[in-house]
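User: I'll paste a sequence; please echo it back and then give the predicted structure.

Assistant: Echoing your sequence first, then the prediction.
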Amino acid sequence: MAVFNIEDKNATELVQRQKIIIRGDDSRVITRAHIPGELTRINNIINRVLKLTNDEIEKELQKVYRDFESRHKNLDHQLIKHFNKVSEYIPASVTLSQNMRMLIGAYLTMEYSIESAALFNPSIVAHPNQKYVVDGCLRFIMSLRATGEGHISSIVFRSGVINKDGSFSFDETNRYVEQASVCHNSAYDRHLFQMKLQDLDAWDETSIRIFEQIPDTFSYQELKVSIGVLYLDPDFVCNDKVIEIIYWVANSNYTLQFDETSNISERVIFPSSDNESRGIEDARFVLFKDDNGEVTYYATYTAYNGFSILPQLIETRDFLRFKVMTLNGKAVQNKGMALFPRKINGKYVMLSRQDGENNHIMFSDHLHFWQSSQIIQEPTKPWEFIQIGNCGSPIETDKGWLVLTHGVGAMRQYAIGVILLDLDDPTKVIARLDEPLITPTKAEREGYVPNVIYSCGGLLQNQELIIPYAMSDISTGIAIINVNDLLKSMTYMSNNE
């Protein structure tokens, strides 16, 4: 993280911009498989290595370690992992030494700089561990959208403390970056899985017969076995499209596990499924308190495969283990889902933007399923005539739910606005800020996507509204606003005054 002074001052007196800009560090790299698509090319690489003498293999491997070992925590593991992706193509009669395996793995590996293009679209939440934090201060976790070569997006994290005076003390960012171990959910819920298939119009005789053979709680392997058994039945013709959807649902619901010894800044949630192969976009993290007092962190995000988008949900309690799940239902469309931090009148509540233009709200008895929505805000101000949406989960105050919005106006200039929703009936907008709270300054408007100001979520601390925000889709700043001054500056609807 680099820190710079910002010369431009915002004209809005409510906003105090911090003298911090968070930029990507292009030296933070992960390893990715770099395997040719053609089998003949894979075989050619393997055969060329097999022709080397033991001394030549050791010399080449030493060079790999000399150049790359200091850039990765466990290079051995990464090389073997990528070798294993092609090990099936090696004849059983061929015996390979460990050095041969690792050198073949090195030829099938590439580095990827996750933050080299941008570090933006942040959200901020209270850290799950507040031990030893001085009274009046708050330890936080900030999520950011990192992009690298090919504009593939992932989620990275920063941490630190918000001090009593509102200043920020960021923890040191580790140069190493670690991907999580990916596993299919060890235990799928049959009833929930069936609901997802019904929602996708994939509950027919094929799916019924598959799920008749598995228990109420089942593993990925048990699912595969049941599908295989059905295919072997000579008296039944499987619906291949339904089976494809079943695997799609199973592969879209998985668990990520990071090493417990890793630093929060080392962890990157990089695309793992085919649905998100081109990026994980705009995670909106929120600290959610259930009716029984339990705390869970959720984040909605957009999975992108290069052709279509898919809204997904992340669940974690410790930022070490993450469950990734699909969101389902007729109302799960477009981007920008933002979950309220608690249930209201016994229901989950979420902001959304189904039509790409208006702010919607949704209610559901089940966190994974959203069937209907209604518009609560339409563009009415010139600075939002093109579209409006949310900038993260609503923030609860004693006056109402404070919602940061983004509006798009002339020349595709973005701005952050504010509305206030009724605490008991959040379908009602009871107040709004007539002018944008944050618009791009001269310094902030230049970047990969000019004139864009955007956030994926703020928090309230000591009556100060903390808003991390992206600048022109390339870097991130932080603004602080006194929430009482903000509430006094809003225009209240006549029947709510």
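Residues 54-68 form the longest helix (15 residues). Residues 1-11 have pLDDT under 50 and may be disordered.
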